[in-house]
Design a protein that fits this description.
The complex is a heterodimer of chains A (298) and B (443). Chain A is mainly α. Helix content of chain A is 74%, strand content 1%. In chain A, strands 1-2 form a two-stranded antiparallel sheet. In chain A, a hairpin with a 6-residue loop joins strand 1 and strand 2. The two termini of chain A are 46 Å apart. With 443 residues, chain B is an alpha/beta fold. Chain B is built from 18 helices and twelve strands. In chain B, helix 4 packs antiparallel against helix 15, helix 10 crosses helix 11 and helix 17 packs antiparallel against helix 18. The chains are: A mainly alpha (298), B alpha/beta (443). Chains A and B meet through helix 1, helix 3, helix 11 and helix 12 of A and helix 1, helix 5, helix 6, helix 17 and helix 18 of B.
Amino acid sequence: MKKTNSTFSIRTKSVLTGWSFVLLAVILIFVFYFYPMLQALILSFQTGTGSNLTFTGIDNYTRLLSDKTFIVSVKNTFIYLLIQVPLMIILALFISVLLNDSKLKFKGLFRTAIFLPCVTSLVAYSVVFKYLFAGNGLVNTMLLKLQLISAPIEWITDPFWAKITIIIAITWRWTGYNMIFYLSALQNIDHSIYEAAKIDGASASRQFFGITVPLLKPIILFTSITSTIGTLQLFDEVMNITKGGPGNATQTISQYIYNLSFKYSADFGYAATVSYSIVIMIALLSVIQFKVAGDKNG
Amino acid sequence: MKKGFALLLICLLMLTACSSNSNSGTKNTGSSGNTGKAENTATAEPAQAKEITIWAWDPAFNIAALEVAKTEYAKTNPDVKVNIVEYAQADIIQKLNTGLNSGTTKGLPNIVLIEDYRSQSFLQSYKDSFYDLSSVIKGSDFADYKAGPTSLDGKQYGIPFDSGVTGLYVRTDLLEQAGYKLADLQDIDWQKYIEIGKAVKEKTGKALITLDPNDLGLIRVMIQSAGEWYLKEDGKTPNIAGNAPLKEAFEIYKGIMESNVANVHADWSQFVAALNNGDVASVPTGNWITPSITAEASQSGKWAVAPLPKLTTNKSVHASNLGGSSWYVMNVDGKETAADFMAKTFGSNVEMYQKLLTDIGVIGTFKAAAGGEAYSQANDFFSGQKIVSDFAAWTEQIPSVNYGINTYAIEDILVVEMQNYLNGKDIDSVLNDAQAQAESQIK
């Protein structure tokens, strides 16, 4: 009897020690993550400007479905997602395979050059892009000099080209980031696999699609999910380059949240509802991506 | 097991999603992290220490005006310390919103500058957070159109500050090449303005005007000149469908675009560059543009200011407003000192207003100040034209409208509909659709 008691107390002790180690982290997570999330959820059921908030049930959620600006913002965000994410991932994959070539010289230089955009400040590079793509900016001047175009392209003030400008900007900023993941994964692939393939007469493209891509699948899944999340939260570039315009041609969901909170008359309740719509979208998309690509690795 | 693992991963993902979401939340409210700086410069006990903190933007204009007021106030109240903190306007809006919403007054200033288009949104959203100045200043001492934005329920909350009175800045040299004189620009309507623009374009190749497709400031100017706004007089009901001046303003905007007399810019620096490079022959805008125009010394003598063109509706006058802002005292410790500071400077000091005008170029809205000497001085840059006395005269004619609390929310709807209109959508359905959208959005 005595023995059981002491075992019990040792067990309790070890459990308590364990908890005391993680307690601080748990408290911090609860206070700074779960509590604000819960508050935001409560807020999303309230409407009113500033501090004049009243509970209105699911009013905000029904408003969401008929809100043209929200729908346009979602559409824009998904256009970025569907064009930019695949484009960037293919580009990153391609570049990383090139840079992984053992015969390539100045590897370090190229890797640094392509990774460098990721360490620049979001706001700083956005402002630079705005000036590069201005009506009389460097890009138009160069294209005109090279006689590729006859009149300046309205990169920022035309609805179509403004979207292209944003896509170019985020691709420039994030391709190197994804490339680093692929590079590190590539270095884990045993070189003898490629040698065996070569002996069997596999072409370079066959090696790429037959060996590289399947072995990188988990990393591709990871980068596509993080890129999806990143794109759904896109804010800085759009805010700084086009301010969502012309009209709302480039406005993203995150920028709409900003507008609702600060540009218009402080509608925090509805802004919280729109924020939750992003959470729901990200969760759904991640589930789909896992189902499509992740099952075999699970 | 597999499923369990996948579920766990999804949960984790959702958590990261949420957490990074709340991260971006902090990013938005971002600069509130800096409040510490303001708090430090602010006092611990303003009431006793007699120290007040003021937030404003634009070092060349508002901050400079505050510095003048600070010096003036120190003459009679040397024991009060005045801290002036400069933030960008967008940062002030974020800080005020987040600060007032959090329910704590710590970190808030004693006095804050708010743009007139936004003031009602703050006054109505945070009712007890602003100090009633009715006993300190008289609203009727200031330009009439400032009463709407700065008062609520019959109480005066704001000290009206700069005038956003508009004029038509023109390049007389370019006009002359096109066969027009400054005298031809008196008492014209916007159609005539476009006509002149076509001649200018033909003869000089220069654009008449520069426009930002995301900023309908010109539309705001036009409708206020006719005493109308995006909202009805109650400041709540959208006034878009059936708003004749708004319809005409849209038609004029399209006319400008289709006559090919407009230059397009995307932000403030490109806007100012267009004026200073000589790319445009005119700028219909607020008088606060004067320092930016005179900054290009090589163009001295080439500019003049004509009255604003008007709409064809009878009510429209040759005067309107664009922008402009006013001071507000927060209902926190030290409010009496803050109110006293404002009353003795911006609320009554005629002499100070002369100094503001000559040194900084601020045209205030304090009626008594307009009689001062500085207001009737000739400006060499504008070929000796007494532009300030012109502006002061126009200020008195500006029709008063209720900006309400949704100017920018409605404008974002109109910006989109304007693009549709330019692309060929029928004007009536443009305005009807905007009205419907505004009604569903404003609750």
